[in-house]
């Protein structure tokens, strides 16, 4: 391998070519912000109760008392049951005999039954969600978190295959093929006839979503120079993801039907496809495959755009040799990738997605809470760039993880009446975890060599999907105890912060091109 950065230094760091690559790659990330967290609105569960058929000859008194009261788990208040009603035959009998509920009939003695005629849902917030369409409540409420988990299973599969495809066939082609997959299958999802069909298509959407995100991330990391790379890999990509995330509640606020919302989310994906003609392949990757002429043509085109005269010979073919093909097995032979992927990535992923998916459960307006959760990411990504530009990688990871863990643990100490203070602590925890997420992506890209960079990022992302698959079930634990998700997330995050001190330091080091250039992990 040649010294790529030295041989392309004549291009400068921030000419028209770099600006074009930077902004177009960032634009391609916006649809990922929609897709990754759209399930917050697509599968939200509005207030509901058993349906009492309108044609039944029940008096108003019995119709109004048809739903038994139950004690709420976290507050202890009596609320109408979501899954049971008093037995219809008994209520009809009492109603016909003119008996009054609570006066002539002791309701505690009236037998109950499930919602045999279905449910009626509060339509004040949503026209429809997949929960109201396919009744994912009561005995079927387990299907709701499973829907998110199926998406993240697709993300896991995409992380596994896209990294290896990208290292073998190129960053650019994998990126645009998977943008098309994500967009087309989101469109197909609109026509889902059942929950099972929705989940199968959602799996493919998840596969496409992570694949194009990682390919774009690695493409930018390899094309851009050291200083601009730092901005791109922390603040750049992440801020545009946050823009997509912020636009999600705005769009969802105006489109309250889940099918129409999905249709609206496909449009930005179709707009990204023409970027094929403006984003080049990675010259670094082409050199690692021995394709010197193609790499040189891209660099000469870059010089032309930057109005710079290139040297007559940019890459000396005698110094460039095609690298041996590597795959995920080369990574798994060492404990390095196992350590960073299983411990660090999983913890950060659980924290990020559990807190993001939890916005619909927070007190107040679901759209505002989701927007607030997205807004918190803007300063978080800005801080990640500052830390990545001027600070030690290990200390950056330790400080953000440990702080996030502590704030999440503090939530359970807040009295129940101080709701907004608890939400503030949760947003500070989300801020810290989001900062770590951006740093971890960029840090992993720094640690692993060009011949394996996309595969390494894919392997870490793949292992972390175990975290994102179980993240919806962390939220599901709320039904047993409100504070349990925060205790688990806070403890895991703080522990990962302490363990991150064992990682190698890559601040100020050149990007490794081969496996022999990789740093050893002291821990």
UniProtKB/TrEMBL annotation:
GO terms for molecular function: transmembrane transporter activity. InterPro entries: MFS_dom (IPR020846), MFS_sugar_transport-like (IPR005828), MFS_trans_sf (IPR036259), Sugar_transporter_CS (IPR005829). The chain crosses the membrane at residues 20-43, 195-219, 231-255, 261-279, 342-360, 366-388, 395-414, 420-443, 455-476, 482-503. SUPFAM superfamilies: MFS general substrate transporter. The keyword Cytoplasm does not apply. Pfam families: Sugar_tr (PF00083). It is found in: Membrane. It comes from the Eukaryota. It is a multi-pass membrane protein. Its main location: membrane. Residues 90-508 form the Major facilitator superfamily (MFS) profile domain. Coiled coil: none annotated. Keywords: Membrane, Transmembrane, Transmembrane helix. Gene3D superfamilies: MFS general substrate transporter like domains. GO terms for cellular component: membrane. Signal peptide: none annotated. This is Solute carrier family 22 member 21.
